[in-house]
Amino acid sequence: MPALPRLIVITDWRIPRARLLTALERALEAGPEVAVQHRHPEAPARAFLEEARLLAALCHARGNPLFVNGRLDVALLVGAHLHLPARGLTVEEVRPHLPAGCQVSVAVHDAQEARLARGADLALVSPVYAPGSKPADTRPPLGPEGFQALAVSLPCPAFALGGVTPERAAGLPVAHGFAVISAVLEAEEPAAVARALLRASAHSSQSRQ
After folding, report:
1. What are the angstrom distances between the C-alpha of 156 and each of 3, 49, 76?
2. pLDDT tens digits for 125-169?
3. Cα–Cα dist 64/66, whole Å
4. How many CB atoms are closer than 10 A to CB 108?
5. What is the 8-class DSSP label of residue 119?
6. Closest Cα partner for 162 from 173, 138, 178?
7. Residue 118: CATH number of its domain
C-alpha cells in the first residue's frame, strides 16, 4: 500500500476552471505528500468524468495522489483512490472491486460514522472549525477537543477538515494530516500554504511519537 498523503486539497469547481487548476498545480509543487480530492456533487456524470481526467493528468504527471469523491466507476476509469461520503457506500462494499494499492478515505462527522470507518485507510473528520468554503453550513464545529475525541476512536488515521489554516493546524497534534479547500485554493501563494500545512503535519507526527 502506498504511503498516505499528509495534505489533501479538495476541489471547489465554483472557482473558474483555469484558476482552480493553476492553484492546484501550485499546491502540488509542495511535494508528493499533497493529494487532490475531486469533489463536484452538482456535476453531471460525464462532466464529472471529464474533470477527473483533467485532475488525473495533473496529479499523475507529478506523482501526486488523486482521490475521487463517491464515484467508484470514475475512480477506476482514471486510476484514482476513492473517497466515500458519509451514509453512502461502505468500505466493505467497495474494497473487493478496487485494485491493489488503492486507498479508501471516508467522511466522519460524529461517533456513529467513526464506528463505520472500519477498513478505511484514512478518515476526513469535519467540521473542525467553521468551513471557509461553506458559509451556509450550520453544523456546530467540533473544535480541537471534538476532533481529538473522534480521532482517537477511529480505526485509521484522522485528517482534520473544515476551516483549517496553518495556524490552526498547529493546535491539532493528533491529526495525521489535513484536508483543505479555501485555505489553499484561495491563497495568493498556494504552494507556500501547502508547505506550511505539511510542516504542521510533520510536527504533529513528532508529537505523537
Report:
1. 13, 29, 23
2. 999 998 765 666 677 999 999 999 999 999 999 999 999 999 999
3. 7
4. 27
5. T
6. 178
7. 3.20.20.70
User: Is 2 part of any domain?
Assistant: no
Question: Which residue shows C-alpha cell 485528517?
Answer: 159
Rounded-to-integer distance, Cα 76 and Cα 119, Å: 19
- Within 10 Å of residue 83's Cβ, how many Cβ atoms? 27
Is 39 a member of any domain? Answer: yes
| DSSP character at residue 76 | H
C-alpha cell, 72: 467508484
For the question of whether the overall pTM of this predicted structure is more than 0.85, the answer is: yes
- Summarised one tens digit per residue, pLDDT across range 16-52 is 999 999 999 999 999 999 999 999 999 999 999 999 9
Distance CA 104, CA 166 (A): 25
